[in-house]
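> call design_seq(struct)
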């Protein structure tokens, strides 16, 4: 079983029934669909079979509150083409989800890379963003993981083949994340 399939199985077993939500791979683009008249369960779609996409979307789900989970894509906007100012705004809202994604990646025993998700700006300097994500991880660890993140991270650490129960150890987050 590949990593993406493991993630789907673990998340759906741990949260599916209790939260009426399913993690679904194979999408051409990530998308969160709330439950409603056309679907019994909310659905978190991640790109193709990429574990990093699954973990990123799970980070967004973990951070979304009840009201955001009632909206398609949690009510967030997404512009595929961004100038430098728009890129800074994108990175500002992505710092916390990517910090949670990094923690989940360590728990799952998978590699984490920051995603600036912009191929149009030549020579995009991602070092400040990488630093911000690292700082956010340390802040989250210092303040204590949100309960739902802790629960998911433990499930991943216990069930993934290379899972790591030491995911909350700040030593894992000393270097800047890969880009």
């Amino acid at each position: 079983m590949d990593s993406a399939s493991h993630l789907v199985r673990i998340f759906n077993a741990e949260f599916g029934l209790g939260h009426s939500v399913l993690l679904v791979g194979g999408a051409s683009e990530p998308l969160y669909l709330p439950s409603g008249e056309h679907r019994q369960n909310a659905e978190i779609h991640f790109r193709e079979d990429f574990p990093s996409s699954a973990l990123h979307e799970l980070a967004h789900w973990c951070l979304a509150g009840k009201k955001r989970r009632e909206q398609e894509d949690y009510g967030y906007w997404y512009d595929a083409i961004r100038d430098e100012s728009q890129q800074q705004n994108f990175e500002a809202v992505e710092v916390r989800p990517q910090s949670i994604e990094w923690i989940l990646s360590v728990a799952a025993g998978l590699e984490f890379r920051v995603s600036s998700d912009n191929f149009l700006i030549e020579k995009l300097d991602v070092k400040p963003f990488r630093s911000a994500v690292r700082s956010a991880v340390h802040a989250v660890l210092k303040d204590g993981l949100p309960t739902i993140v802790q629960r998911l991270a433990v499930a991943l650490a216990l069930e993934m083949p290379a899972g790591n129960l030491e995911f909350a150890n700040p030593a894992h987050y000393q270097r800047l994340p890969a880009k």
